[in-house]
Specification:
Blueprint (H helix, E strand, L loop, with lengths): L1 E3 L6 E7 L4 E6 L5 E5 L3 H9 L5 H8 L6 E5 L1
Antiparallel strand pairs: 1-2, 2-3, 3-4, 4-5
Length: 74
């Protein structure tokens, strides 16, 4: 499980699990934490290894695909 915190105007942090393909995101304009399932495991590992990826761009490209499901938010 990876916790990714970078300076971003869109996303406060991402907690990603490459084994299960699950991503939890807290957006900058919200206190809620959104959980997405069926996220690309390759994309999660790429996010953890590549420090230059924008968090907001990554979420838009990988969490809003048609195969990805919003499980819950708290």
């Amino acid at each position: 499980m990876f916790t990714i915190i970078r300076s971003s105007n869109a996303v406060n942090f991402i907690v990603a699990d490459a084994l299960t393909g699950t991503v939890k995101v807290q957006f900058a304009n919200s206190v809620a934490i959104y959980e997405y399932t069926n996220v690309s495991r390759r994309a999660i590992i790429n996010l953890a290894l590549n420090k230059n990826i924008s968090l907001g761009f990554w979420v838009n490209c990988n969490c809003f695909e048609s195969r990805v499901q919003l499980q819950s938010f708290a």
